[in-house]
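Justification of resources, computational component.

The compute hours requested in this renewal are based largely on the per-chain cost of generating structure records like the one below. Each record pairs the submitted sequence with a full structure-token output. That output is archived, and it is also reused by downstream analysis tasks.
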Amino acid sequence: MKLVQKTYLFCLLLLFILSYSLSSKAQSGLQQLDDRIMIDLQNQRTPEQTGVFMFLSRTHLYGDIGVPVGLLAAGVISNDKQMRQNSLYVASSTLLSTGLTFLIKHIVKRPRPFIQNINIVPVYRAGSTSFPSGHTSSSFATAMALSRAYPKWYVIAPAFLWAGSVSYSRMYLGVHYPTDVAAGAALGVGSTFILQSLKK
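The structure output for this chain reads:
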């Protein structure tokens, strides 16, 4: 019953995000703020920082895949059932957030920042649509699920530092608006609560 209630609440949150993102009044105010932040970020770019943020942006797949695979391998080697179960929880949370992100992207179809505003110059031209950020949703799902499975500061701090860095990199590189990133983070975190029953 609790799972049904959490799923229902999460679906309400998704509907709120979608309806808010599609309302014209919200779009105009948020769009101006989004554009302003993106232009400020691009004006502060340096070659050194760009290299760092390109690297961080690419790490999302290594984290999203590496964390559950590492937990599974360690659980098999040490015959630790709890660790194997936690690897399933992390992997499922990340997969759920990725699926929801894909679905919302195809419903909202928000153009990338550099397409919507010619004053925004990206470091590279990403494909697909912009809302929400897939890198952000998957990295936050991985970080949150790992932190809920192992609620120790030395797990939580690095996990969220990594997820936050990946998320910031998407804005810095000019491929996602701040609101894309915020929605992605909400999706990632929310996915872990829906699948909480998988956590041991």
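The chain is about 80% helix and 0% strand. The chain has a mean pLDDT of 86.
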